[in-house]
Amino acid sequence: MSGYTARRFSRRGMMLVVPLTAAAVVATACSAPGADQPSSGATSGSVSTQLGSEQITLEMYAETGFPLAKALTEEFTKQYPNVRFNVREDQFTVIVENAPRVLASDSAPDIIRLPTMVDLVKDGLLKNLDPYFTAYGWEKFPASQLVQLRVAEGGRPRGSGSLYGMGLGYSVTGVFYNKQLAQKVGMTQPPATVAEFEELLAKAKAAQVQPIMQFNKNTAGINFPHQALQNQFGDPAQIADWIFQKPGATFDTPAALKATQTIQRWAQAGYFPKDANAIDYTAMNGQFQQGGGLFMFNGDWESANLDKAMAGNVGFFLFPGEAPGAKHVAMSAPNTFGVGAKAKHPDAAAFFLNWVHTNDKAREICVKVGGSSPGGPPDLTLPPVTEGTVLAETLRAAAQLGAENGAVDFTANATGAIFASAITPEMQKLVAGQQNPEGYVKAVQAEYEKELSR
Amino acid sequence: MIPPAVRARRTRWARTARWSGWLYVLPALLFYAVFVLRPLALTFQYSLYHWNGIGVARWAGLQNYVTVFTDSDLLRIIGNAFVLIVFFSFIPVGLGLLVATVVRRIAGGPFGTVVRTVLFLPQVIPLVAAGIAWSWLLSSTGLVNQVLRGVGLGGLARAWLGEFDTALPAVGVIGAWVLLGLCTILLVTGMSKIDPALYEAARIDGAGPVREFLAVTLPGLRQEIGVCLTVTVIAALASFDIVYISTGGGPGLQTTVPGLEIYRLAFAQRQVGLASALGVVLMALVLLCVLPIQRLTREDRG
Questions:
Q1: How does it sit in the membrane (chain B) (predicted)?
Q2: What pLDDT shows up at residue A52?
Q3: So what's the pLDDT on residue B179?
């Protein structure tokens, strides 16, 4: 036995083992992984609002499938030929996963499409835009426009503190409806209350029309109607506090529970597609465009597509309140872009962001290509759009929401992983009858607390 | 009898040869060390920390491993992988044996080539494409349900990948489809190496097809079955692409497997430590399952 062992640990064997062990020891003996990033805390006031005439190339990291960013860069280069752009595009989920590493690298982008920014600020990867806020006079913008882009020192809470991003367009969400199907079920005008909306759902079901076409595969699309209800069943400020990670905020509220119970009821009544858990976002859009449902909860980023695919046959309304004339509340978020802490041309990047909000041509591109309100100071007029299109309707809705101050961020953005780790699987269980409303609310809050405690 | 001088020269030559041999494998070894061993060691190191991938890591000791073995969700996810072994390993190997026995008789002719090509085709198709195609087939309006409705079994039609009870088996079926071809080809090749005289002898002894299969084919294929089981068990435990494409791990956690969860933990949740710990545990599980298979099916070395 011993002889056998000895043979097995022969010289040849040792020659393999020694370097391997050495490599392992070297790798594990070194210090803890990760390193301090240069702090991006309040930068010195020496920022310039001049673009200059130097030939520069701005590195941009944007989202695939949304041509807005590229259209804006092309127009910018037309107006300022000394600035070129190098645009790298990825799927949004890929950007979410890559952003920290890309921003930490030596080739960090100047302008980047941002996922949830809390962690990025905590790690010091984003440029504090406060000096530009002052230099460009962005205080003239409605404060509610930029509130989601503010993060307090150390990353928490969001919604106050320094500015870390700007929007390339500001989206609004609501309900799209198929006009032909609406006629079929006897809907003459958009519902004025939640109860009226539920009546329409029942009528559609009775007329064998799929009441709501909504996706719930990969990510929980049914969270759209869920939050639309939650916004109306309680104080939206509570939801905002929770999303911004204010101390003591909880998801376990009567409003969230009532919304969850309503969703459960709708699922049991067959108001969502029976196979919603097998329908993804793309499939939902395709089916809705082909008349596969009366309603679809979605955002104005789809307006241009819907106008093209079902011209004249699609309408939009903001989700109504419980009482007629109640204040509208809707999920609305900027198409957020930030400046990397390691950006080589931060001044030019900020100049570009300011230009997007204030230049006439840029604002027009925001609306025509992006389908969303361009934001900026309220005294600038909105670019004209063709009447009768759903794009015109979503723009009006955005203006109305702004006037009513009813914008609230998505619950899915509360933490980096709340959507993937809690909302999506639990919502899939809920609509399949594998989870009850109480359990849903508690599970989401439990995951939230788990993440905040890290 | 070799003169001493020659022997000395030969020994010296042998020694040089041994060293120059190492020189030849050095480049490969270098790559192996940099791209396999170093990541392995780093993964192990990361698994001992709480780290988000960017900031400063905090020492965690074995806490991440405790989480892996106590978190009910993670245990479920590991359990899902073992359910997949049934579909990824047992079904393809079992069916593969059956098909191979049938195909063996026609292996030589052009028909045999056609059969082998058709069966092997899934191996050539990228798994992502296979996943997409299957999610169409299994969707609520897909071919599978159309056929069911066509033959009057409309009551059985459902969103196979979207329902809690059927999602994991449906993913398993996709895996079985992919791996059946590989197993069949390996087994057919193995059968062609079995001495035809053995079959003849068995037949003379009066063995029927079943007896012949059990007494001649199965023992002769021991090594090939070992390879099939090893490859497919690894495919089951480390599965990622098929699941990611066809269900994304849903509904709920019904089809989430360790590979998918490691990716999510590391890149979406940015818990590099926990992801690494799960990775190390997964590697240990794979070894734990594969080593006994290797031992059982190895040819006895006299």
A1: Multi-pass membrane protein
A2: 84
A3: 92
Asked if B250 and A425 come within 8 Å (Cβ–Cβ), the reply is yes
ipTM score of complex? 0.78
Whether residues B17 and B157 fall in one domain: no
In a domain, B141, yes or no: yes
Quick check: is B59 in a domain? no
Q: Which residues of chain A have pLDDT under 50?
A: 1-10, 13-14, 17, 38-43
CB A323 within 8 A of CB A193: yes
Domain-embedded: residue B30: yes
Mean pLDDT of successive 10-residue segments in chain B (302 residues)? 60 73 90 94 94 87 94 93 95 92 74 81 87 90 91 88 92 93 89 88 88 89 92 94 90 93 89 95 94 81 42
Residue of chain A minimizing CA distance to B30: A19
Q: Are residues B33 and B89 in the same domain?
A: no
CA distance A124 to A106: 14
Q: For the beta carbon of residue B278, count every other beta carbon within 10 angstroms.
A: 26
Q: How many domains does chain B have?
A: 2
Helix H or strand E segment including A243: helix A236-243
Cis peptide bond prior to A247, omega within 30° of 0: no
Closest CA to A126 of A94, A147, A160, A153: A153
B159 shares a domain with B13: no
Domain with CATH 3.40.190.10 in chain A: 56-171+333-383, 173-331+408-452
| B204 shares its domain with B151 | yes
Chain B neighbors of A426, CB-CB under 8 A: 252
Q: Are residues B42 and B111 in the same domain?
A: no
How many CB atoms are closer than 10 A to CB B237? 24
Query: DSSP per residue over B51-101, as a string?
Result: --SSS--EE-TTHHHHHHHH-HHHHHHHHHHHHHHIIIIIHHHHHHHHHHH
What is the token pair recorded at B228?
């099939």
The answer to whether residues B40 and B118 belong to one domain is no
Domain A173-331+408-452 coded CATH 3.20.20.140: no
pLDDT at A14: 47
Whole-prediction pTM: 0.83
Which among B33, B37, B270 has the least Cβ separation from residue A416? B270
Cis peptide bond N-terminal to B3, omega within 30? no
* Contact of A405 with A238, CB cutoff 8 Å: no
**How far is it, in rounded angstroms, from Cα A371 to Cα A365?**
9
Give a yes or no: residue B66 inside a domain.
no
Q: In this complex, which of A217, A420, A434 lies closest to B268 when CB atoms are compared?
A: A420
- Mark whether B22 and B82 lie in a shared domain: no
Same domain, B35 and B160: no
Range of the domain at B82: 71-297
| Distance, CA of A204 to CA of A224 (rounded, Å) | 20
Nearest CA in chain B to A424: B252
B158-184 burial, b for 16+ CB within 10 Å, e for fewer? bbbbbbbebbbebbbbbbbbbbbbbbb
Q: Does domain A56-171+333-383 have CATH number 3.40.190.10?
A: yes
pLDDT at A40: 46
Query: If residue A330 lies in a helix (H) or strand (E), which one and from where to where?
Result: strand A330-331
Backbone angles phi, psi at B240, to 5 degrees: -150, -60
Which segments of A290-345 does DSSP mark as H helices, in order? 303-309
